[in-house]
Amino acid sequence: MRIFDPHIHMTSRTTDDYEALYAAGVRALVEPAFWLGQPRTNVGSFLDYFDALLGWERFRAAQFGIRHHATIALNPKEANDARCREVLDEIPRYLLKDGVVAVGEVGYDSMTPEEDEVFSRQLQMARDVDLPVLVHTPHRDKLSGTRRTLDVVRESGVPSEHVLVDHLNETNVALVLDAGAWAGFSIYPDTKMDEDRMVAILQEHGTDRMIVNSAADWGRSDPLKTLKTGRAMLAAGFTDDDVDKVLWRNPVEFYGQSGNLVLDPVPGFVEGDLPSPGVEFEGSSVLRGVRA
Questions:
Q1: Which Pfam families does the record match to this protein (predicted)?
Q2: Are 74 and 91 contacting, i.e. CB atoms less than 8 angstroms apart?
């Protein structure tokens, strides 16, 4: 089983997770810029974070044979904090960097006027550089939040096929598919979705434009939920080809619209041949320290 995890926050995970992901069949992933759990207090903390996503984290993933990509944005939760808004002036230059495959996560948290403004502005950024968009739906009042999200996307002029609406459930998946966008599902141990509910949704709606992720982060989450969903699909009668479509071909097709995916094997990586102790990241190559 080959897996592309299209939404996972590896900055919050350990190298053990990278080893487990590779063993599970994960060969590529996307790490969206997100809220760190504690509010940022100035634009510099965002820039350090973006630099780490595009440098250090790519290097760290490559050491374990995994291709790392990122999405860049001011996330919805921090869109309400005036101290963070300056970063909107900095984001466009990051959208041109290697490894950036979308603008995101954008969208709504509490559906405030500030979130409206930041969402619309970042959709325009995506149009300016012709990148896909990863959209976060609110955890509360999800159905009306999804309707509002889709309205704003339509008004922006961003093509629906360039939009992945994430954190969906049974209440709003049909809305997103009917709008022509991609439907994303975060599979969690306790909240959002689990693998059995995901299988039921796939049985009802099919596998077209359906994307499954672990969204693993600093909270209680499981980076192997993609693998577990694939196994649940097989147990429910889906074919190996169905699983490959949901866990690999669909996310590759969506993020491939950026033109920035790198999916070939990491040069020099040998499974089980782990990085040498003391190897340091010097920034000149994301592959520095990988054994040849």
A1: TatD_DNase (PF01026)
A2: yes
- pLDDT over 90 (residue 265): yes
Q: Which residues partner with 187 through β-bridges?
A: 193
Determine, yes or no, domain membership for 284.
Answer: no
Q: CATH number for the domain including 115?
A: 3.20.20.140
Query: What crossing angle do the helices spanning 195-205 and 225-235 adopt, rounded to 10°?
Result: 50
State yes or no: pLDDT of 285 exceeds 60: no
Q: Do 225 and 193 contact (CB within 8 A), yes or no?
A: no
Distance CA 135, CA 166 (A): 6
Chain center to CA of 134: 7
Q: Given this model, what pLDDT does residue 146 score?
A: 95
**Mean pLDDT of all residues in 232-240:** 98
Question: How many angstroms separate the CA atoms of 36 and 99, rounded?
Answer: 21
Give the pLDDT confidence of 68-89 residue by residue, as tens digits. 999 999 999 999 999 999 999 9
Question: What pairs with residue 212 in β-bridges?
Answer: 185
In a domain, 55, yes or no: yes
- Which tokens hold the place of 267? 């040069």
Indicate whether 275 belongs to any domain: no
| Average pLDDT score over the chain | 91
Q: Within 13 A of 250's CA, how many CA atoms are on the CB side?
A: 25
Range list of H helices, 65-166: 91-94, 113-129, 142-156
170-177: average pLDDT:
96
Look at the chain and report how many structural domains it folds into.
Answer: 1
Whether residue 269 lies inside any domain: the answer is no
**Residue 5: strand pairing partners:** 29
110: three-class secondary structure by DSSP: coil
* Residue 45 scores a pLDDT above 70: yes
- pLDDT score for 274: 64
